[in-house]
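Risk register update: the risk that structure generation would not scale has been downgraded. Supporting records follow, first protein first.
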Amino acid sequence: MSTASGASGDGRPPGERPARTAGALLLCRARPEAVGPAAPLLRERMVLAGAGAGWSLLVPGGKPWQDGAEPVDRVLTGWATALAVGAPWPVLALWWDTDRSGFVLASGFRRPVGYEWLADGTPVGEDEAMRTFAARLGLDPVLDVQALEPLTRPDPEADAPARVRGLLAVLTRAGLLLPAGLTPGEPADRLRGAARILPDAEQVDWAGWRAAVGAELDIVERGALGPWLRGPRARALAVAQLALGLPLTAWGLRHRGGGWIVAGSVLTARGALGLAYDRLRAHS
């Protein structure tokens, strides 16, 4: 119900609608048991569930952008970067508000790659970004890239959420399958409600740095990356994480970028932990 002044029924002025109706999903190309230990490092309440063969999804509550502190795309870029750095799997962030929709793919230390569409579906990204996206996810360089190309061309029948759904349709060939109710274009609270009732849904909460990093370290040490936690390569990785994390945190603080502050904090913590772990194991 609208008021005579044009404000929405909850009392918010029209200018705040993009933040209120924004939504996002984080898709990780890894099973939930691998993603679970890393997810609390984002310090945001989320719902974790499976999303097809070899995929997991994280559904955030949307508090950072609902509070109006930071746009949804900037928050998701920081979160995807924080999750992907130091992990052996890429992270795909999907986001939308009333003005735009888009995605960001983060993979290791490489610069994130993304693409955007205006509300009416007009492409505003670079074609090369879509090809880089396909390559980093290991998609078919011919068939899948050809299927992605229409997303970079004008289409009067496709709005921004339809473009994101088209992207997801291509990824089904890579095993991705979003559960029912998690539809691009829906607001964050509706997505979270749909995720909570999934059979394999798991609540992710922040329990402090010691618990979150300790759990992640235990999983990694018992997995294929265990040997990388010691020796010259591990020390070089830890130093690189510190060198990137400290200035990134400082930049986020100066520009009030919550997502980048989280990414910088995670990098700094992982770097410090890596150096400490290597030294501890060397004397054990």
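Supporting record for the second protein:
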Amino acid sequence: MTTDRTGGTRRTVIPAWALTEPTASLSGYTVGVTSDRRHDELAALLENRGARVVLAPALRIVPIADDAGLRTATRACLATPPDIVLVHTGIGMRRWLEAADGWGLAEPLHAALSRAYLVARGPRARAAVRSAGLRDRWSPEGESYEEVVGHLAARGIAGLTVAMQLHGDSQPEYTEALEAAGARVIEVPVYRWAPPIDPAPLHRLVDLITGRLVDAVTFTAAPAVGAVLRAAGSGTEQVLEALRRDVLAACVGPVTAAPLRRHEVPVVSPARARLSALVRTIVDELPKRALSIEVAGHALTLRGHAAIVDGELKPLAPAPMAVLRALAATPGRVLSRAALLRTLPRGADEHAVEMAVARLRAGLGTPRVIQTVVKRGYRLPA
């Protein structure tokens, strides 16, 4: 497998024989990656499965170790040691302890945390707690905030102090739920989200989503969803419509998926919030959307930016692929040049349709798959 990167896109070239290998299970598909942290790891996992990856960080994490809010929250935890501490992210826990060490407050903070009922929302949070020499008491099975609130409310938290390490932005709905159960909540802001330094890849991904030129988009943090929609601007509804109908939205967990579900976007998520599990979920889901038909004695499958003809992968450019999809949607039916023109980018003319058909025939390597019907147009003789 070879890769090159152009304009934020990793292009993966898979030899035909590799289609039978498990690593090629995403061959022909394009997947957008919106995460900043660990994006290379996620991209490598997808590429190893044969996907073409578009990197477009929607946000970046900005540490706020010198922020007055974090210092104030830390001193509040020392003045009134919390009965319960909610650790939502491993990186947040580590940075909180590092900041306290820089202020000379590491030992008293560690002592206060060691006496608390520590809740780690996921495995990385749990690992950070244990590496700090602390002991976590409970973790939610589904790693969701709702489970955490339900668990604590069932235990009874009236009159108790809860320190909640924030996951980027404030989560007022969870703070309010804990306060409604009678707790006093100390929000601990360890880092904040900021726009990417270079917004061009994100705007390009928005265009690709709207044009259905990516097959899936991955989200590993809920704020990234909002960032993508803000980048869409007046085209927000077009992005949402693409995600509802044609582009798979794959989220690492239920917390990340929540903003999309509020917009009635169907979401797939793994049972456990792991990048490897997220990739396996995409591997399971995308091939289900492939269209397979028999044409002129050949087995033809459409997947993403490629066609598979008799088991051989045939990558195609966007225009030929658009023509093929239009013809495959109604196999056997003749589509005029004018009808096919509507599938091509704006500004194209009927000559562009002829060029796209010629490139499609050459790309498939089986000219008889695309049949010309004189004075009428083209069809797949299915």
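The domain at 2-59+196-289 is CATH 3.40.50.10090 (Rossmann fold). On this basis the risk owner (M.S.) recommends closing the item.
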